[in-house]
Amino acid sequence: MSNPRSNRGKDALEFHAKGRPGKIQVVPTKPLTTQRDLSLAYSPGVAEPCMEIFKDPAEVYKYTARGNLVAVITDGTAVLGLGDIGPLASKPVMEGKGVLFKKFADIDVFDLEVKATSPDQFIECVAALEPTFGGINLEDIKAPECFYIEEKLKQRMNIPVFHDDQHGTAIISGAALLNAVVIQKKSLAELKVVVSGAGASAIACAKFYVSLGVKLENIIMCDSKGVLSHKRKIEASDPKLEFVRETEAVTLADALVGSDLLLGLSRAGLVTPEMLLTMAPRPIIFALANPDPEIDYPTAKATRPDAIVATGRSDYNNQVNNVLGFPFIFRGALDVRATQINETMKVAAAHALAELARKDVPQVVSAAYGEEFHFGPEYIIPKPFDPRVLHWVAPAVAKAAMDTGVAQIQLELDAYIERLQGLLGGSTAVMRKFVRMAAGAPKKIVFPEGDDPRILKACSIITEEKIARPILLGDPQRIQQIIREQDIDLLPGSYEIVDPREDADASAYAEMLHRRRERKGVTAELSRLLMRERNHFGMMMVAERRVDGIVTGLNFSYSDTIRPALQIIGIRPGARKICGMYLMLHKGGMLFFGDTTVNLDYDATTLADVAEMVADAAGTFGVTPRVAMLSFSNFGSVRDPRSTMVADATALLRRRRPDLEVEGEMQANVAVDYTLMQSIFPSTQLTGPANVLIFPNLEAGNVAYKLMRELGGVPSVGPVLLGMARPVTVLERDCSVDNIVHMTALTVVAAQKDEAGATPTPALV
Q1: In sequence order, what are the beta bridge partners of 112?
Q2: Cis peptide leading into 283, omega within 30 of 0?
Q3: Residues with Cβ < 8 Å from 561, sequence gap 6 or more?
Q4: CB 3.0-4.6 Å disulfide test: which of 17, 81, 681, 765 passes with 760?
């Protein structure tokens, strides 16, 4: 079996090379479809905003994207985990940083990799770029040059300059420290701190801890040669000089005796259990070396059960992750047009993160990670995918900027927080929620197309994320051959292969099918033949609870997949219909489309049935459904049998479900533009733009979601099959590997509810 690390590398290369190379692109924000558009966007129209900016430089924020544009800049001399690989090779890392800015805070980024022969040349290059950007994020620059570069740029530039390698870790670990001392009943002013490492991040963290209340004289720092003590000669220009101490300690082990806090920013394996045993009672251990800490989390906890332990790893509690900081710090700084990111703003960010961790954790966060979180030794810092971080940290930073006089505009904070809450749709967090929920109690999921490479690649992710235990149907030799040939990382024991032609239960399944379908023209011989067919066999495995759900359809038509599901598994008790639904992961929030895949013939009753099922489905995704019954008519504006059917369905659903917000018939643009809706129909029953869109027929729904996905670039998840008695997921033929993973997670969550005996969730089963 191939090495998992080599497979991860192969996957990473494919990820970056697939489709448009890299991870970022520039997208115009104005229409450029007519000659008039071009004349406004460029010559001669562009002269007008140019002259307005010339007269008043502040107008640049009104007429250009500068106020939301950050430069991620490096010379490639200290790329995390890779060292001095140069500016060109560092570009994938810088693009990745840009992706995080955009994903977590909707900040646009240009990544700039600078080939400079000296720090001063680098400074000149970056300083000359000030008119372009609203902020500068320095990245992966080696020490001690990074200190000099940042300081000089801060002196010369009138926009925020922030070296994340220094301050990001300082702010996030500082937030963790604020909470750790509370739990451990220690005082910042009396804390004895040992720092393992003396690079940019270590020095910045130590300085920041002083800003938080730690006494400088209580910090002992160790570099690769040992303790920075008075016995060693440190150059006057060396940033380490500030941390030279009068001490008899020589080694890291010496320094740790009686200490309260170990901050590790060095390398793996430097700290032993014996060293931890010499620390003070109730110690705090931040072993933050990446990718492997100075001492691993389980060993540290086993050695010192009374300790609070944090690492930089996502697979253990208390992850110190810089993504909790820089997107939101820049968001707050940009939104008040701060001229710098000062110490007060950084301290405000740390306190905001610490305070957020003490709040009750909303269900959406706990569900996203598959476990409950409560403030305490195992939860001292928020999770990276906590959607509250944006509107918690950015306002704190903005307020600090305004309070300290570095903000060029003033914001009303309550209105600002409300704006931030709507800045990013919650779709990513919601999908992550279901992945985490699935991983909390993985189920057996059968994949009839077990020899399809896309299924096998998806199963590699599914097993790595512990979402499910895949049961692959097909010829074992053929499946193993594909795994080897395509170097797919599926570890032995993480999956099973079942060949329906050889399976011991095939005969019994055939007899069951014959008994169920003999009055529908299915003979005993046909039953035996059908049980050799993988899709039918997989459905029978689900019906007989040998597995918990099925994911299929890549190589079958939709009707050929639905038919055996209905014949063998059947409809959920109480369901009037089955229907297909798509989740459209729009930036403004999730939209639920139905019916997109199943029902061809509609009447008012069918339409009401579909709307009810999709509305209930939307509720399981943590949103309040607002249902729009779509048509070419607005509230009776056109009298036609087709629009009348939609109006009748609306009235029927209102009588049946008075608890739902339902409106119609209406046109699609009116449904999603609440201001327009109110102007046309002031008495609308919806309290906001519709998020559940019910189409008047399958044609409309199918066409709409595909156009939105392909031309609008809106990610989709689906189709989700509503109304089945057991978890059945039908994939599209062009389904991506990521979509297969997401659909499998939804199937597992449905199986969890089914096993628990809960009322089946319409959105999933």
Answers
A1: 73
A2: no
A3: 535, 552, 553, 730
A4: 765
pLDDT for 265 equals 92
Query: Which residues are within 8 A (CB) of 262 and not within 5 positions of it... i.e. 6 or more apart?
Result: 194, 196, 256, 271, 276, 279, 283, 284, 285, 286, 287, 294
Of the candidates 439, 468, 436, 467, the residue with the CA atom closest to the CA atom of residue 367: 436
Spatial separation of the C-alpha atoms in residues 227 and 249, rounded to whole Å: 7
pLDDT confidence of residue 760: 37
Residue 346 catalytic? no
The pLDDT tens digits for 65-109 are 999 999 999 999 988 778 899 999 999 999 999 999 998 888 999
- Residue 492 tokens, joined: 């032995």
Q: How many residues does the chain have?
A: 765
In whole angstroms, give the CA distance from residue 331 to residue 321.
Answer: 17
Cβ atoms 71, 136 nearer than 8 A: yes
Query: Angle 188-190-192 (CA atoms, 0-180°, nearest 5)?
Result: 95
Strands 135-138 and 69-74: parallel
> Of 751, 755, 743, 754, which Cα lies nearest the Cα of 462?
743
Residue 38's pLDDT band (boundaries 50, 70, 90)? Answer: confident
495 is catalytic: no
State the DSSP string of 618-674: HHHTT---EEEEE-SSSTTSS--HHHHHHHHHHHHHHHH-TTSEEEEEE-HHHHH-H
Report yes or no: 204 and 166 within 8 Å, Cβ to Cβ: yes
How many CB atoms are located within 10 Å of the residue 304 CB?
Answer: 19
DSSP line for 19-78: SSSSS-----SS---SHHHHHHHSTTTTHHHHHHHHH-GGGHHHHSSGGGEEEEEE-SSS
**pLDDT 10s digits, 256-308:** 999 999 999 998 889 999 999 999 999 999 999 887 899 999 999 999 999 99
Task: Give just the sign of the alpha carbon dihedral 371, 374, 377, 381.
Answer: positive
From 62, 91, 97, 240, active-site residue: 97
Q: Determine the residue type at 523.
A: T
pLDDT at 762 over 60: no
Cα separation, 415 vs 694, in Å, equals 33
pLDDT in tens, 393-409: 999 999 999 999 999 99
Q: How does pLDDT run across 163-202, given as a tens digit for each residue?
A: 998 899 999 999 999 999 999 999 999 999 999 999 888 9
Compute CA distances 283 → 70, 251, 475, whole Å: 39, 19, 56
SS3 content of the chain, % helix, strand, coil (to 5): 45, 15, 40
Among 10, 23, 30, 42, the one annotated catalytic: 42
The confidence score (pLDDT) of residue 133 equals: 96
